[in-house]
Amino acid sequence: MQTANSSNEPMASRAPWVQALRFMLVMAILLGLFYPLVTTWVGGMLFPDQGKGSLIHAEDGRVIGSRLVAQTFVGEAYFIGRPSSAGNDAGEVVGSNLAPDSLELRERASADAAAVAAREGGSLDRVPLDLITASGSGIDPHISPAAADIQVARVARARGIEEASVMALVDESLEHTGWLGSPVVNVLVLNARLDDRFPPPSTGME
Amino acid sequence: MNDVIAIYAVVALLAVPLGAYIANAVGERRGRLDTLFGVIETPIYRLSGLRPDHAMSWQAYAMAIVKLHGALIVFAWLLFMGQGLLPLNPDAIPGMPWDTALHTAVSFATNTNQQHYSGQAQLSHLSQTLAIVTLQFVTPATGAAVLIAIARTLLKKRADGALGVGNYYHDMTRLVVRVLLPLAAAVALMLTWQGVPASYQASHQVEMLDPQVEEVQSVPLGPVASMVAIKQLGTNGGGWFGPNSSVPLENPTPLANVIETASIMLIPVALLVAIALIANRRRLMVGIGAVMLAFSLVSTSAVVMSERMPNAALTGLYQTDAGLQGNLEGKELRFGTDLSALWGSWTTQTSNGSVNAMHDSFNPLGGMMLLMDMFVNVTFGGIGVGLIGFLLYLMLAAFIGSLMVGRAPELFGKPLETREMRWISLAILAQPLVILGLTALTVALPGLAQTSNAGFHGLSQVLYEFTSAFANNGSGFEGLGDDTPWWNLTCVVALLVGRFVPMLVPLAVAGWLVTKRSAPSGRGTLAMDSAAFMGLTAGVIVIVNLLGFLPALVLGPIGEAVTSGTGF
């Protein structure tokens, strides 16, 4: 760049490398160590449950999972969540990243839709949209109330209980019912409650 | 739609007092803030051996930026490659390959935060904090500092004879300590309250509840909240987790989503207020803000409408007479389509680049709006650089406008001559040159592109990646297999040119103009703060970008839309 006929006045400071390096180290210590340490420590003290991953514990203190991380369910006695491109592994979170013109997306969604229709005994035009679309994170813990409703009959049958008792647990597991957002069902919370109150016939098999 | 409007309103309400505070915090008058923050600032000056009141010329200011960023890039590069041998690595993550590490260092040092790795799996806690978080503070502060330096020289109405543009380290220190740190700490605590982890422990390993699924699931932890706060506030965008704020651990609730969305836009808008006060140019800033808001509303409503449309791949597979509708592929249920679309348009308008839904799976016209947001890149824009970029277009409009009314070109009463116009044109033309040039090379040479989609969307993926790099945005159509030496090195070029050319050219122009004699204003003088001139500037922005990028858009998202079943 050609040097302008710049004023000769404030040119003195040539900003030496040493100054840049020293400033960088000071900033790294303040912002890269001190700031995260303090906010993490204070946040962990004020909100110990949330700070450690919002874990769900069983009666015996065993960790069942996190309210914020979906799990994979295949058993008849369980509610099933949204398709996941990550196998519900929070260590490998990822979306499908498939575009609307993707044949692969069409094939995956067709298979998912057919599976839902077969499992719940209905036609494709009763399959809720959230059960055939993969979430962005691959660990979306929620399904819509409609997606829970179509699974109630099967879960009740598999556990040998009244549909009404399952419905009641679905309502208990609704989240975001306030003025922000729309109500959704937390699948892991719901399934943990089911296991707690109405253990499936198959448990204790091992 | 109501929640979209509400979040716009929240930002507007918060930005005015914040802007006034910023103007006060970096102003020359001494006051209570000096006493309050002196506790942190004085040791910073002493430890780095600085004289904060030492005025710099624009060249010295620019050199200080180049040197600090050079040092930071080398520091982060070495840290990423050597993290396997260093502490704070509970999950035993190995060092990064040299090219990924270089790309990551440059990407974070340019306020881009484009990621060719997956955050939580490839960076240790030390790398995430010491390198990434440091850069997430330093880079937005740099953008704001340059903007303020320009405001002091080019924009300030009464010339007080001083030719210095300020002191870079002084501006940096005050912006970091007085503005960014308190805001980030507050947002970090609010996010932890909502469920974002704050812990230095290793991941939990959990057996899945269903006994038929014999898998162990990991629940990752880390000092996540502190990083997410500054990534949102600092138009950074690089998240703890690969899929960013779509991950429930990074963005757990609708309230957290409101906080994070508002944080994207807050400082870029507040800086308009701050500059209006610092330079005493209220009318000009209201005009610029109105143009930006108009662009923002057009883009946001287009994306919201587009994502409410069905996804063409899913036709006939689900219930359409009741229940959820719209394009839910790649979106989280707790946000739905509207709030995902709002985040998508704001994150591309402001060069933030964080996401709460996968842009790759947006409907074609929604995806095209995101691209256009990044081409324009001055719809509020990145911290500091958004308004600097707008000034660049304003300079071009002043040149054209002066010629149209038959006057010698001038800017704020100072003559715009060949040297200025040569550099302004170069800074504007660098964008299509770099983006289209690299896109063409990548698709022309076999084996380089690594796209996950064929046809039109494949081209969109490549175009999006370079556009995002040049715009210092950092979001991506993430299906792209971009962790290759080709992608890493070409993106490094786009990142550096896209960051420093459009930032330093206006600083140079301000430095050149301030030494020139003012022309007396008369009846024919271009009224830069008039509605007509703002209209002209908006027109210049639209025309320049359409001329540059319309052909590429036709081959990408427009081709995709017209060949898809739904037309969206």
UniProtKB/TrEMBL annotation, chain A:
Topology term for the membrane: Single-pass membrane protein
Keyword Ion transport: yes
Alphabetically ordered keywords of this record: ATP-binding, Cell membrane, Ion transport, Membrane, Nucleotide-binding, Potassium, Potassium transport, Transmembrane, Transmembrane helix, Transport
Entry's localization field: Cell membrane
Biological role: Part of the high-affinity ATP-driven potassium transport (or Kdp) system, which catalyzes the hydrolysis of ATP coupled with the electrogenic transport of potassium into the cytoplasm. This subunit acts as a catalytic chaperone that increases the ATP-binding affinity of the ATP-hydrolyzing subunit KdpB by the formation of a transient KdpB/KdpC/ATP ternary complex.
Family: Belongs to the KdpC family.
Record-linked HAMAP family: KdpC (MF_00276)
Complex and partners: The system is composed of three essential subunits: KdpA, KdpB and KdpC.
Protein name stated in the entry: Potassium-transporting ATPase KdpC subunit
Underlying gene: kdpC
From TrEMBL, chain B:
Subcellular location(s) per record: Cell membrane
Xref: Pfam families: KdpA
Keywords: Cell membrane, Ion transport, Membrane, Potassium, Potassium transport, Transmembrane, Transmembrane helix, Transport
Keyword Chloroplast: no
Superkingdom of origin: Bacteria
Membrane topology of the entry: Multi-pass membrane protein
InterPro entries associated with the record: KdpA
Transmembrane segments: 6-26, 60-80, 130-155, 175-193, 255-277, 284-305, 378-405, 426-449, 486-514, 526-550
Family statement: Belongs to the KdpA family.
Subunit structure: The system is composed of three essential subunits: KdpA, KdpB and KdpC.
Protein function: Part of the high-affinity ATP-driven potassium transport (or Kdp) system, which catalyzes the hydrolysis of ATP coupled with the electrogenic transport of potassium into the cytoplasm. This subunit binds the extracellular potassium ions and delivers the ions to the membrane domain of KdpB through an intramembrane tunnel.
Protein's name in the database: Potassium-transporting ATPase potassium-binding subunit
Organism: Halomonas dongshanensis
Lineage: Bacteria, Pseudomonadati, Pseudomonadota, Gammaproteobacteria, Oceanospirillales
UniProt gene name: kdpA
